[in-house]
Amino acid sequence: MARISKATTHAERVGSPASGGDLRVGSHLSVAGGAFHAIDEAVSLGLDAVQVFTCNQRQWSVPALMEDDLVAWRAALERASKAAWHAGGPRTVSHNSYLVNLASPDADLRAKGVRRQVAELERCEAMAIPYCVFHPGAHLGAAAPRDKLLGSPPTREELRGLKRIGRSLDTIHRATAGLGAVGLLETTAGSGSTLGYDAVHLGIIRDCVKQPERLAVCVDTCHMLAAGYDMVSASGATEAVAAVEAACGAGAIRVIHANDSVGARGSRRDRHAHIGHGECGRDGFTAMLKHAAAVGALVIMETPKENDAKGRPMDVVNAGRLRRWFRGSGSSKTSRLARSAPSLGSCAVAVAMAILVLAGSGCRRGWNAPSKPMPVAKSGLAPGEVAQPNAQEQQKLDSAASQLAGGNYDHALAEFRSILRDNPLIPQAWIGVGDTHSTQRQWRDAAPAYERATRLDSGSYDAFYGLGVSRHMLGQYVDAVRAYHRALSLRPNDATANVSMAIVYLNIGEPRAAVAYAERAVRIDPNSASARINLGVAYERCARPREAVDQYTVALELQEPTPRLLVNLINALIADQRTVEAAATAEDLVRLSPTAQSWERLGWVRFQAGDFTGSQAAYREGTLADSRYFPCWNGIAINAVNRWVQSQQQDADAANEARNAIRRSLEIHPNQPKIVRLSTQYQL
Predict the structure, then answer these.
(1) What is the pLDDT of residues 17-74, one digit of tens each?
(2) Nearest of 211, 284, 208, 207 to residue 248 by alpha carbon
(3) pTM assigned to the model
(4) Which terminus of the chain is less hemmed in, N or C, by CB atoms within 10 Å?
(5) How far is 441 from 473, CA to CA, in rounded Å?
């Protein structure tokens, strides 16, 4: 790791603050396809700064930086400086992994966090990033009372956690002696046992460390409001800044995360909204912007990545609003704008933030490259170089594509590889290799081919979408989101890519994000049954069964019924308490596919409707269709127990039927705690 020259002062490394009155607004942007893309995207959006994840924020492992990536990064910095950012001062911010918890009482977990933070600071050094934002952590003990006043002393549990953070930071500072990046403690919303919601916490941490000059503060407007600070009025925001500076020192605030808040003041809800569409006020934002300009702090937006009704990126819209408010123009409202203005609506605010979070993976620093490059591995490709096929190569590409379309996979693959042997810099050939493997569901072979294509051509939708599909099918969901996100930045109105993004978010348990993308897909292509079905699934998982039923019903009009679609509709109808319709649909399911699974659904629906005789009959039919499908035996057992209890335990036939069904189910699948408890409870 290249260290800073001892002759270089700390102030020189982080850059001078912007001159008074200079407002610098940036955003957290994706680094999919290469870190340098975030800088280029910031310039194209008219932004003055950028925040990134230097690597996957949801994994402990930290990959090596590639020489080509650093070369491309430095070139992008130089382009940015020439095109838009002529003045000196900080321009880039890193945000460390959410896994890091320096307050944890678990020593091993703290040690992992220390190593991760050290690695992050080293990456910032290599890429000349002056600021590294990180969350203080959570003490994991009893949460403080919700009515605890801001500015009051921490609880005993909180104080222990704050001291653990201080000791951890001392270890980090010793391991990174000589590096110039400053760690920024981010203010938090204060949910659970999270520390940092009170400015007092940040001050205690700085008092605990031996090198407090290596720490500063990142103020998040959404978090501050959620924690209880007044971010609506100018006086309230000014008092919040004063509280931070009283605890941490004048000039402690180096970055402001400008995010509006879905939750109200004191809600402790960390959910970001577009500027002017949440609970923060215009006057509060203006006061924060004036402070940022006065001290040279960067203003970074972490708002959802989407377009407004006119197709404009919301980063552009939000930045424009902040700049107008800073100049004193625009609406005089201090509260929310109409919530329906963003194209995805306020229900997707926290979700779209998850998209931003998952899409990050590379890093950068101020607009000057580091004095020494970090020793890294070579990738073998010239950064940004894209080769166009000559006439002969294009003829071979067309021939290979024709072979692929005709199902001659071996011949197609041989032709694509023949092209690459002569010229490995043609992205279309790498995409062809990926497509050939994908068609045969050889995802492990497809992924690296698409990956190579994305490195050669950062503007190729086909490469990024193919990479997303292959990563998705390999279960590498975070990487899939990153690739899909990049594909959608190139072709935002592609219904297929939006559906794919919705599916991957369903896979990782983020249904609200899935709703956002599936709704967009339906708007783009209302006749897409796939979009309708996945939107229905997302609505179900967001506890919106009536809307799910509507989507499934439309899907049934667009395509022939399938067992899976009918089961989805049944589940949504039951959740919406429409048992009569659910029973009719379950009967359609049995007629379409008379399997044990279908009979089980019919039995379950009839049980929900109170038709216990019909339910028992359906479950018995299921065991005849497949005697080893244990859910049907469970249904028989539950119905029999129900009949036995209603007879005041006088119906011996019911008891015997329940006993036999339980025994049969456990023979097939012994690990069923609920069925074991049922047997024990009723001594069957």
Answers:
(1) 444 457 999 999 988 888 889 999 999 999 999 999 988 877 888 888 888 888 888 8
(2) 207
(3) 0.51
(4) N
(5) 9
